[in-house]
Amino acid sequence: MIEISNGNLVVKINELLGAEIIHYGTKNRNYLAYYDWNTPVEVSKSAHYETPLMDFMSEYRGGWQVLFPNTGNSSKINGIELPFHGEVSRTKVEIAESSENKVVIKTGCRLPLVLTRRFTVLPDKDVLVIEQQVLNEPKIKIPFIWGSYRDWE
């Protein structure tokens, strides 16, 4: 678990699940809805469910996810199967840079695209700045959808 803070605003990021933000608030108050459910058993700890939607939902606990390289239902792009809400929201990310109030993560996906996200908690304001960039490695035309989903408490 990655934690960045300015002493008042605390942001916790799960690097095992696509840099999902699971806490946004103060040390004692989370403004995101986040639940520590025991069921259904997470697909990463069990067997594949019957559908990509159930695979996603088995690990969903609330929070704030990035949806990439697709959103919504599973789909096929250039012949490559992509799961519900894209695979990045359920992929372990690489931590490229980290400090007390900033973290930069990178992750690839089944398509030849790399998503870089920079999370910075401003030192003098209770503000989280998220900067994102997609690198198209082969420089060929690749369609994708990019979104974000969060549950507020």
Keywords:
single chain; 153 residues; mainly beta; four-stranded antiparallel sheet; 1 helix; 11 strands; 39% strand
Estimated structural class: mainly beta
Low-pLDDT windows of residues:
none
Instruction: Tell me, briefly, the overall form.
Output: globular
Rg, Cα atoms, Å: 16 Å
Helix residue percentage: under 10%
Beta-sheet strand percentage?
35-45%
Order of helical and strand elements: EEEHEEEEEEEE
The assembly state of the depicted protein chains is single chain
Task: Explain what you see.
The protein has 153 residues and is mainly beta. Helices cover 5% and strands 39% of the residues. It has one helix and eleven strands. The chain has a four-stranded antiparallel β-sheet, with no helix packed on it. It is globular and about 45 Å long. The two termini are 21 Å apart.
Short description:
The protein has 153 residues and is mainly β.
Chain-wise SSE layout:
Elements: E1 2-5, E2 10-14, E3 20-25, H1 52-59, E4 64-67, E5 75-77, E6 80-82, E7 94-98, E8 102-108, E9 113-121, E10 128-136, E11 147-150
Antiparallel strand pairs: 1-2, 2-3, 4-11, 5-6, 7-8, 8-9, 9-10
